[in-house]
Design brief:
Helix content of chain A: 40-55%
CATH class of the largest domain in chain B: Alpha Beta
Oligomer: heterodimer
Largest sheet of chain B: 5 strands, parallel
Distance between the termini of chain A: 30 Å
Structural class of chain B: alpha/beta
CATH superfamily of the largest domain in chain B: Nitrogenase molybdenum iron protein domain
CATH architecture of the largest domain in chain A: 3-Layer(aba) Sandwich
Shape of chain A: globular
Number of strands of chain B: 16
CATH topology of the largest domain in chain A: Rossmann fold
Number of helices of chain A: 24
Strand content of chain B: 5-15%
Strand order of the largest sheet of chain B: 14-11-10-15-16
Helix content of chain B: 40-55%
């Protein structure tokens, strides 16, 4: 029987020539497709100034080549607004879209009591029928909003447009406006039809715009707290947000709002009262941070609570921003306390995981963040890529001025934001910002994934299912990370596959306790005896293994 | 018992039409399902299907964007077809439309015809079979999409050039385990059969035989070609519309005799299937199944003391609910509510057919001695199911995972059957049909009731 050792006898990485791999990945494509994919498959090489090579990203998927990507509706309703519990998310369209986004991301939420509203287990839809497509769906939408109000009395109702809605010309915004006046609660719509943009990324932007335009800034109540931050781009999958909240609370840092894990309408309305925006997932939420800075004067910084080291670094960064010795001391104390268990488990799993290879193809920030966790276990990320990110998420925001805006992105509205005449209040003066910058503190910056990756690693944008299979055969990683769509195809090849969208049934993986969970889980997956019952194709056909080694 | 009517759908009890079409295409050998529309549809449906079967499920997409929504999706569809041909070596590509392409009015059969012509002109004649089906989500459920795709396949692939000594078996949407069992049965009757679709391998494949780009298994295309010349067609489904019935097409176009019957769940509906097999094959029912049936009846009797008078709410796909209701009535469980998200118009009649003269009458509201027939409703969502269930004081729910919140609320067991099952393991191996499937459902139900009974007691009784 094939033993685990066979599988871990992966080829020496040094013996694989990434150029040959790239050539191999492209070889089966028709010329036009190969030309396009060549720009999206990059051999990483970080320059002295931390500049990474240019990668093609955020361009349309190729018809017929099976992609991981979803649509604009999925990004808007499914990702950004789905985790909010106390407003009614009403899908305006036929039944499928609402059904498939019905609590499938494992976002968790925790209402203070069982009596508090929690609509997350619900799926509301106008369920458009033939006659609505022919005669228009506005009447039905109006009635559905009224009905949702009558039955559930929610704080707000948001309406999400699906493909046919835009095509038949339903004006969801005017219906929303009319119902808002009629019902006296906030009602707003999103034009997030599935065909907009090149991936779910467009939907994130649309969601950011809508929530900013219609909700942020409506409630000026000041929350108690000395150090008040917003946590942006944290969706509380598997309880990540709960763990981050625990750590922040322990440090004495107050989270005014989270966009949007475990969130409520009131948090959004009140978000502008925070003194710092911290961004977890840069791709899905940076728009809202930019807009809050312009309108309210709240600076933003990039943080990452995935990985114990990164979480510690992020806490220190927040403390440094507030520049308060008391906070700095508390943060150090908390980190020291938390790291005891972390280091113990790290040492334990390293014995079994050190040197093993990982691949990550997921999301718009996770493929980057999770590399830290693997590194803490002594595992090496040999290839990574995003599903829906843009060039700045790969190469860093330094490339923003050079990004060509194509027609698909141009169709997504860019809001023009002016400082709020009453509420614009710069949290730091120009001098303070300069002073912090001089100490190496970077605002509004995200250095991207590629500068953090080793030279010679392969960075692949929007990896196709075909490329996935080839990469597995060539590198035989110890673990592959992506989503449920890839899970079973990968595992059929005898390679453990960890879902980093919905975490299989696990989590949290953020923060310190999350890191410990992750180490243990990956250790279990990678070293589980169950794999010894499977034979991977290269075990039955050793020539396959040798083919890609460069002589 | 009257239900409330709502404008909106809250917690739907149906999925969308193209999903059903993709499932059906997946049951054909070497097939790649493709959705003509926005890529999100393919992604969402893949995710949903994969979570249930725990198997890879590829659905290609023509990935239309805003520009294509305005100017039409033809070029993308053609490019997609070409890429699937070269990359996957598909032997059949099943193209289902979506809301987007139906709304903009893309003429898919025409585009595919053009594509074939263009391929021919460029010297490529050995194309995969290309099947198109119209599946706008705003008209019907995943079951209409499933049946429409099966019908489209026989319409576009089958012929009667050769007459063949085969049985066409059109089972509808069953589990891979069900399909394997059906195959075993027809094999045991020594009667060659074509089961369409057959995803018993493609959606429940063994480890590592699956490294081909397209998993093995599925109804061979050659077999589908021969369906027009078959001896007979058995088609499961009591609520199937004529225009969506592949069996009716085969009968009307090629004169293949059609025997439509309900999904064989429970004793009587399974008897119908076995009787028909006996008549067709001229072979007596193999001893193995006579014994299975005998054991099933024996266990009906044994289970009677636990089940009689229990009240059940059954929901899900129309034909599945009909089959389950038939079975429940036989074992003395009272179906108090039969609900479906579908709207075939045949649901109530079908339920009446299987419960007539056998369903134990439900007692009326507490305090009244009146009995009432089961409430039977089409076009239901879980909001409506819950409202009725709260008044009907059921003892158990039977249906897919989406009924779990209701079962939790009522504190009663949920017997998981059908699709989607996302909160239990082994959904692809649930056996629903035949004597053996009925047996396993019966055991499951009795044990769930015993467990609930046990859990309700403060004492740890281990002898029930």
């Amino acid at each position: 029987m094939a033993a685990i050792d066979d599988r871990s006898a992966a080829p020496e990485i040094e013996s694989i020539d990434p150029n040959a791999v790239k050539k191999e990945l492209l070889s089966k494509y028709p010329t036009k497709v190969a030309r396009k994919r060549a720009k999206q498959i990059i051999i990483n090489k970080v320059g002295d100034d931390c500049a990474a090579p240019e990668i093609g990203a955020n361009s349309r998927a190729i018809p017929g080549i099976i992609t991981q990507r979803g649509c604009s509706y999925a990004g808007c309703k499914g990702v950004v607004l789905g985790p909010t519990r106390d407003f009614v998310n009403l899908t305006h369209g036929p039944i499928g879209c609402g059904f498939y986004s019905w609590l499938t991301r494992r976002n968790q939420t925790r209402p203070p009591t069982l009596e508090d509203p929690n609509f997350m287990p619900y799926c509301f839809s106008t369920d458009l029928q033939d006659e609505d497509i022919v005669f228009g769906g506005e009447k039905k939408l109006r009635a559905a909003i009224q009905e949702a109000y009558d039955i559930f009395r929610p704080k707000a109702i948001s309406v999400f447009s699906t493909c046919p809605v835009g095509l038949i010309g339903d004006d969801v915004h005017s219906v929303a406006k009319e119902m808002k006046e009629k019902l006296g609660i906030n009602v707003f719509g999103f034009s997030c039809e599935g065909y907009k943009g090149v991936s779910q990324s467009a939907g994130h932007h649309i969601a950011n715009n809508g929530i900013f335009k219609h909700v942020v800034g409506l409630d000026d109540t000041q929350k108690e707290g000395k150090y008040k931050i917003n946590l942006l781009g944290e969706y509380n999958i598997g309880g990540d947000g709960f763990e981050i909240d625990r750590v922040l609370e322990k440090c004495g840092i107050t989270t005014v709002s989270t966009f949007s894990g475990n969130s409520t309408y009131d948090q959004f309305a009140n978000a502008h009262t925070a003194d710092l925006n911290t961004i977890m997932c840069h791709r899905s939420i940076n728009y809202v941070a930019e807009m809050m800075e312009k309108k309210f004067g709240i600076p933003w910084i990039k943080v990452n609570f995935t990985g114990a080291g990164s979480a510690a670094k992020s806490l220190r960064k927040i403390a440094k921003y507030f520049d308060d010795p008391e906070l700095i001391a508390t943060v150090e104390k908390v980190i020291a306390e938390e790291m005891v268990e972390v280091e113990k488990v790290q040492a334990e799993v390293r014995q079994r995981c050190e040197g093993k290879l990982a691949m990550l193809f997921v999301g718009g920030s996770r493929a980057h963040h999770y590399q830290d966790l693997f590194a803490e276990m002594g595992m090496k990320t040999i290839s990574a890529g995003y599903e829906f990110a843009h060039r700045d998420d790969y190469e860093g925001r330094r490339v923003l001025p050079d990004i060509k805006v194509d027609a698909d992105s141009r169709n997504i509205e860019e809001l023009h934001i002016d400082p709020d005449p009453d509420r614009y209040r710069p949290r730091k003066s120009a001098e303070q910002i300069e002073e912090l910058a001089a100490k190496g503190f970077s605002f509004k910056d995200y250095e991207g994934m590629m500068p953090d990756m080793s030279d010679g690693t392969l960075v692949i944008d929007d990896i196709s299912q075909y490329e996935t299979e080839r990469m597995l055969e060539i590198y035989k990683p110890a673990i592959f990370c992506a989503g449920i769509k890839e899970k079973y195809a990968v595992q059929k090849k005898g390679i453990p596959m960890k879902q980093l969208h919905s975490y299989d049934s696990g989590g949290p993986y953020a923060g310190f306790k999350g890191a410990v969970n992750f180490y243990r889980e990956i250790d279990r997956m990678v070293n589980c005896k169950v794999w010894s019952f499977l034979k991977a194709p290269w075990q039955t056909n050793p020539e396959l293994a040798a083919t890609y080694a460069c002589e | 018992m009257e239900r409330s009517n709502y404008v909106s759908t809250t917690n739907a009890c149906k999925l969308c039409k193209p999903l059903g079409a993709c499932l059906a295409f997946k049951g054909i050998e070497g097939a790649v399902p493709m959705l003509h529309g926005s890529q999100g549809c393919a992604t969402y449906m893949r995710r949903y299907i994969i979570s249930h079967f725990r198997e890879p499920m590829d659905i290609a997409s023509s990935s239309l964007g805003e520009k294509h929504a305005v100017y039409g999706g033809g070029p993308n569809l053609k490019q997609g077809l070409r890429n699937i041909m070269t990359k996957y070596g598909a032997r059949l590509i099943g193209v289902a439309t979506t809301c987007l392409t139906e709304t903009i009015g893309d003429d898919v059969p025409m585009i595919v015809k053009e594509f074939k012509k263009e391929m021919g002109e460029s010297g490529l004649h050995d194309l995969p079979a290309l099947v198109t089906v119209s599946t706008p989500s705003y008209s019907g459920t995943h079951m209409e999409g499933f049946h429409a795709a099966v019908r489209a396949v026989v319409e576009q692939v089958s012929s009667n050039e050769d007459s063949a000594h085969i049985l066409n078996l059109l089972p509808g949407f069953l589990s891979p385990e069900d399909l394997r069992y059906l195959k075993e049965i027809t094999d045991d009757f020594w009667y060659p059969s074509v089961i369409l679709p057959d995803f018993s391998m493609t959606l429940d494949g063994p480890a590592l035989t699956d490294c081909e780009k397209i998993p093995g298994g599925g109804t061979p295309i050659e077999d589908i070609r021969r369906m027009g010349g078959a001896t007979a067609t058995f088609e499961f489904g009591s609520t199937l519309a004529d225009f969506n019935s592949a069996g009716k097409f085969l009968r009307d176009r090629f004169g293949v005799p059609l025997h439509q019957m309900g999904i064989p769940i429970g004793l009587r509906e399974t008897d119908v299937f076995f009787d028909a097999l006996e008549r067709l094959s001229g072979t007596a029912c193999p001893e193995k199944y006579v014994l299975e049936k005998g054991r099933l009846i024996d266990s009906y009797v044994d289970a009677h003391k636990y089940l009689f008078g229990k009240r059940a709410v059954v929901y899900g796909e129309e034909d599945l609910v009909v089959g389950l209701t038939s079975f429940l009535s036989e074992v003395g469980i009272t179906p108090v509510l039969c609900a479906t998200g579908g709207k075939s118009g045949h649901f109530k009649t079908a339920i009446e057919r299987v419960t007539e003269g056998i369903a134990p009458p439900a007692a009326g509201p507490e305090g009244s001695s009146a009995v009432q027939p089961p409430a039977v409703y089409e076009g239901m969502d879980f909001q409506q199911i819950e409202e009725l269930a709260l008044q009907l004081s059921p003892d158990l729910l039977i249906g897919h995972s989406k009924g779990y919140p209701l079962s939790k609320k009522l504190g009663i067991p949920l017997i998981r059957v059908g699709f989607p099952i996302h909160d239990r393991f082994g959904a692809q191996r649930i056996l629903h049909v035949g004597y053996r499937g009925t047996q396993s459902l019966l055991d499951l139900i009795v044990n769930s009731i015993l467990e609930a009974h046990q859990d309700d007691s403060p004492v740890g009784y281990a002898y029930m």
